[in-house]
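Hey L., structure's done. Input below.
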Amino acid sequence: MRPGFNMGVDPVNYEKPQSIVDETLQFAAQFGATDLIIQSYVEGAILGEEKWELKDILSLKEKVESYGCKIEAFENVPTRFYDHVMLGGPKRDEQIENMIYTIRNIARAGVSIFGYNWMPSRVWRTEREMPIRGGAKATAFDYKIVEEGLENGAIVDEKPSLAHGRIYEDDEMWENLEYWIKIITPIAEEEGIRLGIHPCDPPVPKLGGAAMLFRSFEAYKRLIEIYPSDSNAIEFCQGTFSEMNEDIYEMIRYFGERDKILYVHFRNVSAQVPKFHEEFINTGYVDMLKAMEIYHDVGFEGVFVDDHVPVGVNDTTWGHRGRAFANGYIQATIDSVKRNAKK
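Output:
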């Protein structure tokens, strides 16, 4: 179990990309959290309109490694790379070929994990600056506002309530996913890379009119059985799994015992859907020490990173203070669990 940092996106405005700069790499090295998850949620450190080139991936990898850090995983490509794949659009097969090209290049650059999402509407919140402890700002969500917005055709979280022109139901979205999984998993096996899907955040039935498939324990059980393979796995955002109306500890144990967890977004929330807000890592409803003990019990050896940290006084756009607090908590929790296990 290793600590790392999440890089490439704003901690509360997930639509705002950030460059991977020398200062944040030095910061990671100084804090001893050198296993990095590189985010490209909307845009990112690697540019491209439809796919990523190997030379650009290698250039970023060289920069990261010059600070004694390592790219543990790439998380996401811009949604435009595969929105037709998710929604069954006319460019689906063209986008799949480009995604195969990108994933091969990630693997050939020596990065063994690619985490992505199945959220054509991306992540939604209904409030971006909710005051929590001491006036720190965190995001919040209330599904009632989304449902009312869809009924009234309103803008919610600066997005159209019917973002894709019509309703996409579960069955259609599952059909699109299965088409993709059955094509991409053999490619991943061939290249020696593991792929994992992030849960839908928030885990509610629909956002932007599109079904949010990965909102339950059963959905993930279904995913890993579509094409049973080590390469068909889970990007385990514990924060989003905690938002589900499920037992978070049971899900950690179930997927951990099956070696399906690639890495962990170790964050906390106030409650489960339909209404919740982000919290500091030690003030949400989840017992984070208990969670870490389960990861250890099932033999998980991967990386834990910060995610969606609250913004405190005089913090930066990357959230240095919030991320330092979360990462220090992660490192202390890992150390505590490891030491207690030896007794």
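The chain has one domain: 2-342. The first strand starts at residue 2 and ends at 7.

-- N.
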